[in-house]
Design a protein that fits this description.
Helix content: 40-55%
Number of domains: 1
Organism: Brevibacterium ammoniilyticum
CATH class: Alpha Beta
Oligomer: single chain
CATH superfamily: YqgF/RNase H-like domain
Largest sheet: 6 strands, mixed
Family: Belongs to the YqgF HJR family.
CATH architecture: 2-Layer Sandwich
Distance between the termini: 32 Å
EC number: 3.1.-.-
CATH topology: Nucleotidyltransferase, domain 5
Number of strands: 6
Function: Could be a nuclease involved in processing of the 5'-end of pre-16S rRNA.
Structural class: alpha/beta
Strand content: 15-25%
Order of helices and strands: EEEHEHEHHE
Radius of gyration: 15 Å
Subcellular location: Cytoplasm
Length: 156
Amino acid sequence: MTFRRGRRLGLDIGSVRIGVAACDPDGILATPLTVVRRTDEPAALRQLKEIIAEYEPIEILAGDPRSLDGSARAAAAAALDFARRIDTDVPIRLVDERFSTVEAHNSLAAAGKSSRQRREIVDAQAAVIILQNALESERNTGSPAGRELPPQESEQ
């Protein structure tokens, strides 16, 4: 089992905001980077392209919105559509994000952040959780976490 060396980006793609996280080149620790607002989609896509160019990740791990039973939620199609529009040659993988936002709220509350403070940064913290879980999965299994972003025509 080998762990691939290289920086990765984590994305929590929401309908209003996209949380962005990055890890170190050794894939040990995920940290929050920023929150990209989706009010202007072309601007959001440009901002993500700039972040990708700056960090030069070996892959992007985007949260895959799922229900508790594992089925795709309504938000899944919108998140997949947005992920496909990110202008990059970097592979994008989808990873289970169940409980990431709840976990993010809980960790921020435990850190003493108010409800208002949490609202502004919870998406970046959720991206950290998505990325950290993916890193741990790869470290434990020796295989990249999640699944490749499916092409448009193969969506169920």
